[in-house]
Amino acid sequence: MAIQHDAADPTRALSRRSFLKAGTAAGIAVKVSVLAPPAQARLMEASPSDGPAWAAPGRPRYRLDAVAKVTGSKTFSRDYRAKDLPGWPDRQAHALLIAATCADRRFTGLDLSRLPASLQPDRIVRHEDLVADGVAVPHADFFGDWFLVPQGETPRLLGQPVAILIFYDFPRFAAAKRALRFADDVVRFGEATGAKPPAHYGASRWVRIEGETPDAPDRFSPYEHSPIFAGFSGDKPAWPAPGQEGAFPKGMAAAAAIAAEIDGAGEDALVMRRTYRSQSTDASAMEADNGNVWYDPATGILHLMMATQSPYDVAEAAAGLVAKSRFPLKEVDLKVGYTVGYGTKDHHIFPFLCVVAALYADGRPVRLANDRFEQFQNGLKRHAFHMDTALLVDRASGRFRAMTGRYACDGGGRPNYSVAVSFVGATAAQSIYYLPKSDFQAIALASRAVEAGSTRGFGTLQTMSATEMLVDEAAALLRIDAIELRLRNVMRTGQRNSQGAVPAGALRNEEILHKAAAHPLWRERVARKVAYEAAHPGRRYGVGFAQVHKDYGTGAEAAVASLELDAQGRLRLRHVAHEMGPGVTTSQAAMVGEILGRVPSETEFGVVRWPEMPLHTTDQPYTTPQAEEDRRAQDPRWTPRFTSPMSATNSAYYLGHATRTAARFLADHAIWPAARSLWARGGKGGALASYNEITRDGLRLADGEVRGGGLPALSLAEVAAEAHRLGLAVGVTLHTFNRWQWAEAEFDLPGTGRTRLPIDALSLRYGAGAAPERRALMDTAGWHFLPRTAAFYPPTQRNNVGTTYYSPMATLAEVAVDTASGEVTILSHHSILECGRQIVPALVSGQVQGGLAMGIGHALKEVLPLYEDGPGDGTWNWNRYELPRARDVAPWNQTVEILPPLSETDPPKGIAEVVMIAVVPALANAVAHAIGHRFHDLPIRPERIREALA
């Protein structure tokens, strides 16, 4: 999503997942890199070979990291100690967070008398130490105002650290940690004050009323006018008054008109008002938060080994944190390791707690690593949502006339991405339906709960599940088949979403609905219910359906990729993408093979140093039109963002765009002219002369050969050698930027002329045969950085779009409910996914299977109490938190259908989040079909079913 506003300053626009970086003090070098040998062991994947072991032909047979994974040699950030890192001391200190388990009384101090003298920490870090030394939380409007609770103050949230204990050796650390585990007398509390959370985080409103005709401008919409932003009066948003002047008052007038229409509906309409609740959950990523940091006071260098999805942001914010303190700082050196997190390592305070610990370790590397109890206590949670919805449906036609929703999420005691999560959820609430009129409120509330953040689904799982449950119930009340009602209201290509924007490309939700309606599970559900219940006394049978589509991207996606062709026809790929588990590195290499007919022989991922791409950025891609225009006028090398974190389902489409564009550039500007040169040999135009109608579009690259137009096949090695001899562009590095539309730029290419490309920066490397004057151009780290002659950035108004890229998925779920125990057994489930063109089908299958398991857990099992009996008390682990197991997800009775692309030129779509959503309401609807009772709160656990059946 594109806009997040400070309630006090509605002109300030931030990203869905943007993170305004600290201004790093002048003279501080910030270095970010992937671990280098020998420390990396098998951290990075082995590069693919040209032979059949990895690809046959040109497509992957298994993941690049598959051998490392199955042999146990793939390493993660958590696996490293100081002795494993080149240049670090061998000694390793360890840190322990002491957390508050109470958030309604004053913190009065620590009592470590449980520890004998031999186990007392070597250093205790308190809030007062940080204040004295000028160590403050970076971006307090995001991470909150305190690292550690000040003595005499009430914690902002349950589980908030009050102190950091540092031990210079592991045995004492481990023994002390065991002694303090679950102790309720270590943190002392005084008088009761009541909860003291921060101020509520923000509120936005997304109101749309369609125009007189489908093509006419909307009478009001966020895209045409503006979203509405508000502060709070107590616990409720203080929305502006309706009026005729100004975007906010006009929007409120439109909202009032929608409310009046719903309130005044006659008997010809069905008005449904329902309240839904979605629970707080833990992402349960297998790697808990961790970091290893060494501050060397002798050199002023801060070394970090960190588990994070956003290494650039961590490095720069850490530099700002330390630079403003008494600790001298000359350089920040962040080493990036593999990590997994489902979003929970996307901008979290934990890396900075690691930095704080290192500042007080007397020059020793300090490792701060959560165990699972600690991860439950302070790891980012999925937001709990309270959702009040209303749907107005014309009884005769079954058409939706209007929908409203008030979507309030509990962000806990730190702001994090709560405002963004709230409005991403609200703008997704329309699900797959066209709504002529809609009013969706997005409210982000603060509380004493554990911090919630950027977890998989980003608010849409909660709101679209509610909508799908609402539509299913509406169908029952109208006595219309539930899929038929959806077909009457499905959003079709060219129609506008609730923000007033037209989604990109072809919308295929209608096609999916027809497939679902024809599936035996749906077509035969009545007969199957009768037969099953007759054969299984005491068990009720049900089939449920749901369909959603999920946006992917942030509205500020940027990437850098480099591809080089050597004289022997071997390819080298370098990329900013780093592996978070879904196989991004495998898919990027496969994209090269699709276009150039050969996968790279050498790959390097997680690249963060790009000397050949000397761009400048303030990383503020959500600014005003004039400010962006002024910035570009002042600095022709400026770009809104240099690179994106690994989040928001951005790898296949956005990061892949850089890979695909680089591969096509080599095909156009190296392989094609070199092949023409070879085909023209032999005098009189050679074999090409009589077949000269062949164009670049007729070129075919496959299996390491270059073919086309009836001309003789050439090996890629032959063509590469010719490209080098001719001095063509045999290496390309490029930068891309997307704001719900691709930035483009024009470049004067040597030997080609003015060329417009879907990128905003370009560097080239020429073959050995290039003329001296052309080789002289390669003066930027051995590359020719081409100044753009014109740049075309998407208008900043597209920030109001919210999203234009969607991936749809539907799920049919077949369940049996035991009326005695209340247990829900999933008998089978079938999903239908549209993901554009699949890059690696096996990776798509893996994403679907994993996402379905996560959705099943959310629907039927997983729940965390928000407050005093929740994870903030430090006693939660997987012994109390129930995750789905293999037996719960019908592993042998799950099927998925992937829609074929409309053409071979369809781009791939981002699917990592959508695959977990549809199964949630499908299961809720299946339970309703089974027992005749509709649940509006998740999860649907056995005790609630027993109560409903009593």
Automatic annotation (TrEMBL):
UniProt domain Aldehyde oxidase/xanthine dehydrogenase first molybdopterin binding: residue ranges: 265-490
Pfam families attached to this UniProt entry: MoCoBD_1, MoCoBD_2
SUPFAM superfamilies in the record: CO dehydrogenase molybdoprotein N-domain-like (SSF54665), Molybdenum cofactor-binding domain (SSF56003)
Organism, as annotated: Methylobacterium aerolatum
Biased composition (Polar residues): 617-626
Protein name: CO/xanthine dehydrogenase Mo-binding subunit
Domain of life: Bacteria
NCBIfam families: TAT_signal_seq
PROSITE patterns xrefs: TAT (PS51318)
PANTHER family: ALDEHYDE OXIDOREDUCTASE MOLYBDENUM-BINDING SUBUNIT PAOC, XANTHINE DEHYDROGENASE
InterPro entries: Ald_Oxase/Xan_DH_a/b_sf, Ald_Oxase/xanthine_DH-like, AldOxase/xan_DH_MoCoBD1, AldOxase/xan_DH_MoCoBD2, AldOxase/xan_DH_Mopterin-bd_sf, TAT_signal, TAT_signal_bac_arc
Domain Aldehyde oxidase/xanthine dehydrogenase second molybdopterin binding intervals: 675-889
Region annotation (Disordered) ranges: 616-642
